[in-house]
Design brief:
- The protein is about 25% helix and about 30% strand.
- The chain is elongated, with a radius of gyration of 22 Å.
- With about 325 residues, it is α+β, with helices and mostly antiparallel strands.
- Helix 1 runs parallel beside helix 3, helix 2 packs across helix 5 and helix 6 crosses helix 7.
């Protein structure tokens, strides 16, 4: 039985609603009018009614427009918007080279001014990095499908990464502490944390006889181009028998990497939120986990509930290190 049948909102719809509640998505991506009710699913932006009309005039091969409240969204459209991360992430791509003297239209701008800016931004891609305009433009000509912001980010990473490079970058994972971990010995446990990404495995030290351990250890994983989720497992160390599992969780690093690649050099930006991994029924998050630029670095704090175990939570801090 689906979650909808049980009276809960579908995870996709809920994630879309949560994304819309982010501060950058509470205004139109193109004119900053409040309370946008429309979206371009392939570009990954939320729009006001006036800007939505201009987007429709561009054609669905440029911008696929949907109503947030009235239209039925398929999972592909929902995932496309969530993957981009919303207005701030998309604008960091489409407005990365906004020329001096060119400004976004105000919310009360006339139709002609609004149309000129939106066509320049998305159809002509005049504000993209120059190298990306060529790649994205060529892709658009060779496809009847709308070009997504994610595809542009992919071309950015492929053009900026050596063909011989096996990895996109490195992920530093600070295992901060655990809370209320499960008992696996007589009265306590001797826990340690294992992280797995592909064939890589790294682990913390063992903390003896402690259900609320503090590690504050930084573990580093190299992230390949075809990365997957990081598998986190907690074990109880045993001297004479096999170590006992104390729970596990999957860590989705895609929201962080997508945001980091979209913004490029984080040192050029002030402290700000650039993305978010949203809590849902399908993941281990206890609360939404924002992706932030802090002191020129892309960082993310996570609080996860261990799965397949009677109790246990972990606090983590991620930091993206580009090559």
């Amino acid at each position: 039985m689906s979650t909808s049948a049980l009276g809960k909102p579908s995870s996709g719809k809920r994630r879309l609603k949560d994304l819309l509640s982010q501060s950058d998505n509470r205004v139109c991506a193109d004119c900053s009018a409040p309370d946008p009710k429309w979206a371009s699913s392939n570009i990954g932006v939320f729009l006001c009614l006036k800007c939505c009309g201009v987007h429709r005039s561009l054609g669905a091969n440029i911008s696929k427009v949907l109503s947030v409240t009235l239209d039925e969204w398929n999972e592909e459209d929902i995932e496309a918007v969530i993957e981009v991360g919303g207005n701030a992430s998309a604008n960091s791509i489409y407005e990365s080279y906004l020329p001096e003297g060119v400004s976004k239209p105000a919310h009360d701008a006339g139709h002609e001014e609004r149309t000129q800016f939106i066509k320049s931004k998305y159809e002509q891609q005049a504000f993209l990095k120059p190298s990306l305009r060529i790649q994205a433009g060529a892709a658009a000509k060779n496809s009847s499908q709308p070009i997504s912001s994610r595809e542009i980010v992919n071309s950015q990473q492929s053009s900026s990464t050596s063909e011989n490079s096996e990895f996109l970058g490195k992920m530093k994972v600070k295992v901060v502490k655990g809370s209320n971990l499960a008992v696996r010995d007589m009265l306590s446990s001797d826990p340690y944390v294992l992280l797995i990404l592909g064939q890589q495995k790294v682990q913390t030290n063992v903390v003896n006889s402690n259900l609320n351990p503090v590690w504050n250890e930084v573990l580093t994983l190299s992230v390949p181009h075809d990365y997957s989720q990081i598998k986190l497992q907690v074990y109880d160390h045993d001297t004479f028998t096999a170590d006992d599992i104390m729970g596990e969780a999957d860590i989705d690093i895609q929201p962080m990497i997508t945001s980091a690649l979209a913004y490029g050099d984080a040192k050029k930006f002030a402290d700000m939120q650039i993305g978010k991994w949203l809590k849902s029924y399908n993941n281990a998050l206890i609360e939404d986990s924002p992706v932030n630029i802090v002191a020129g670095k892309v960082r993310q704090e996570l609080w996860v509930r261990l799965q397949n175990v009677e109790s246990g939570e972990l606090e983590l801090e991620l930091e993206w290190v580009p090559l």
